[in-house]
């Protein structure tokens, strides 16, 4: 299978420089160290549509080491050349906003290998060990391996066990494993999965993908909060009245009704992505920007989210499901009319909840989180509403209550807005709200890396900032599970909002009880 | 043309510009105009140069490096002449409804008015933000009055490959004592990245002390400043790793003047570590073939144009220790060779 190059004597390592003298951090992008990626489920959609195009793109951007290698593993019998041909076709088809260069591909494909194997077969892992040893020798990967489980979550435990049994979890270099959500479907199953993984890998070597919150976004929020001296003193219960986090989609389930009805909005979005956003907004400053320091503070915040008692759930959460409507001149089906969806489904396509954080900084401040499909527009934002001025010096203003509002926009256009009152030009002292905007500009036409490029790069470099840790997973489940437990015993009168509207009336009522209203983005 | 410019008048014109832009945008149908500025970028050009090239580079830079752009166009004349005009450059990012605008000032000046420029230009710089001065003309850089303009810069930018005498310009850059950016150095970033990537490998890193020769192949009759920079940087890095390299210069008659076509790092032992990078193509598209022992790869570089180079340099407003070290050594290499 592999080349016939001889191994260089290891005694050279004795004289090794401890660091690469050619580094130039001011100008160079971060380099991915020599390594191999072993993809389980290599013949599947994720590999073809996302993983290989992302890896090719990293090669095109000159981010990969010359000896970078991929071993694809799946049950389909295939030779290395057949795998390379198949991946070439996929990459050429699914590459986003990038040219396909034959010569770059040719060099990249030299490092692609394949082996057929079943996760349930221990022989497959022995075979993989042999492959990886050969690759280490001729591709100079230094024994670094990233195991990517592009398989059903139900196979994660078996894959980890097989890796461990074949001695693949340890070697000359680092060994890491990447898995995608869902990380269990409740707290108990999340713990069980974690236990299975920890039998083989240390927590620091487990990379759980939560790619909703892009690196740029997290960094922008942290930079805004902790890079400036003027906002953090206001960032607590004395000045903040409430926080709203909205993740709205205008599309429906897009043909994935069968998968979605097993999940629902609360599991699919709030349990992971939106609670992560909340943690980033509400966390204490970390002493450094090291990934674990940041994750420590986010995990700490999640542990302080108040767990609802059963009798508090219905007053502090809303479940919704969209019904049919006419939008833009076209008829749009309701969720129950979507393909693969049970006509009596009780799955939530909309979820809203009021959370509280029980710590000194946030005591008494409601965090309103909502997410839904078939809402009027696609938008993700965080709106921080400040307390009003304690005394109306100017005798009130024509626009009624206009508290200061800080909006952190995540998508579609990332940026920050600050709303404050200003005097209207002219005679008299009338105030009006004005908005000061800052947009994070990516250059016009400049390509942004795809989520998988960033995730794969970070996993290979060993930067876990974007990845979720087990304690964060468990804390999130702890906050959400009481809601799920109550909801699953309810018979909701669905659908309760029309497609194209901002969700059920009950969500408005939830805020109205505290004198608040949802912001219309 | 008048003999002077009044900065206050120019600033008033800029203020009126924003009022006009605000009125022109219809609040009912747009999100208004957003002003953006992160620096003052002063560009010195010869009047004979096509201004559209410069302005298109400015426009391309604006989204990432919005600035008050001041372009000073010089014409050789013994008369002291200065004139200005003010306008804006706006763009609407894809998918947005709001225009983002930057201020632009164009100043026409004679060589004789160079001593008058600093007092005029300094008040036009945006307060509290860095001032970058980009000198596109070798002639202007060499004028005795140039240091007066350079004095107001936080960072001075030039392209030493446009200068006829590499040793002289490398020495001159060092003598400015300013934070400097040389596009001839910037042009090397992609090749340097490739080399750095190779030695991310522990096994190759361990063999660095084996390397004793840095061979640079170039077009033209003498090595361009880029070649001196590259050899200097590699030599510095190898020495810090315990190697003792010497530099070998190879002229290639079939390669365009000023271009670097090949770089090889070798040791004295046959069959020892051998790293070779072959560069081909032109400014629109360059390619590199990388060979390390039995491994080979192909790389595609972004276009080599002012926009790509400047956006990198403008991202580094402060001192660049790697560059400064390489500059010093490159100066010595060039002086030795002359």
Write a short abstract of this structure.
With 521 residues, chain A is of the alpha/beta class.
Radius of gyration of chain A: 25 Å
How many domains make up the 3D coordinates of chain B?
A: 2
**If you compute it from the alpha carbons, what radius of gyration of chain B comes out, rounded to the nearest whole angstrom?**
23 Å
Please list the strands of the largest sheet of chain A in the order they lie side by side. Answer: 8-12-13-7-14-15-16-17
Overall geometry of chain B comes to: elongated
How much of the sequence lies in strands of chain B comes to 25-35%
The termini of chain B sit apart by 45 Å
Q: What would you say this structure looks like, in words?
A:
The complex is a heterodimer of chains A (521) and B (338). With 521 residues, chain A is α/β, with parallel strands linked by helices. In chain A, 33% of the residues lie in helices and 19% in strands. Residues 1-17 of chain A have low confidence and may be disordered. Chain A is globular, with a radius of gyration of 25 Å. In chain B, the strands form two sheets. In chain B, strands 1, 2, 3, 4, 5, 6, 7 and 8 form an eight-stranded mixed β-sheet that branches. In chain B, strands 10-9-11-12-13-14 form a six-stranded mixed β-sheet, covered by helices on one side. Chain B is an alpha/beta fold and 338 residues long. Chain B contains twelve helices and 14 strands. Chain B folds into two domains: 7-153, no CATH class; 189-312 and 324-337. At the A-B interface, helix 3 of A face helix 8, helix 9, helix 10, strand 13 and strand 14 of B.
Structural features:
heterodimer; A: alpha/beta; seven-stranded mixed β-sheet; 19% strand; disordered N terminus; B: 338 residues; alpha/beta; six-stranded mixed β-sheet; 12 helices; 35% helix
Architecture blueprint of SSEs:
The complex is a heterodimer of chains A (521) and B (338).
Chain A: E1 36-40, H1 45-60, E2 69-74, H2 80-94, H3 102-109, E3 112-116, H4 122-139, E4 145-149, H5 156-165, E5 175-180, H6 187-198, E6 206-209, H7 215-227, E7 240-248, H8 257-263, H9 265-282, H10 291-303, H11 310-316, E8 317-320, E9 322-323, E10 325-327, E11 330-332, E12 350-355, E13 367-372, E14 379-386, E15 405-411, E16 415-423, E17 431-439, H12 451-461, E18 467-468, H13 470-487, E19 497-498, H14 505-512
Parallel strand pairs in A: 1-2, 1-4, 2-3, 4-5, 5-6, 7-13, 9-19
Antiparallel strand pairs in A: 6-18, 7-14, 8-12, 10-11, 12-13, 14-15, 15-16, 16-17
Chain B: H1 7-24, E1 33-35, E2 39-46, H2 51-61, E3 67-75, E4 82-91, E5 99-110, H3 114-121, E6 131-135, H4 138-142, H5 146-150, E7 155-158, H6 166-176, E8 180-182, H7 183-186, H8 189-198, H9 202-205, E9 213-218, H10 225-240, E10 246-251, E11 260-266, E12 274-282, E13 285-292, E14 295-301, H11 306-314, H12 321-337
Parallel strand pairs in B: 1-5, 2-3, 2-6, 3-5, 6-7, 7-8, 9-10
Antiparallel strand pairs in B: 4-5, 9-11, 11-12, 12-13, 13-14
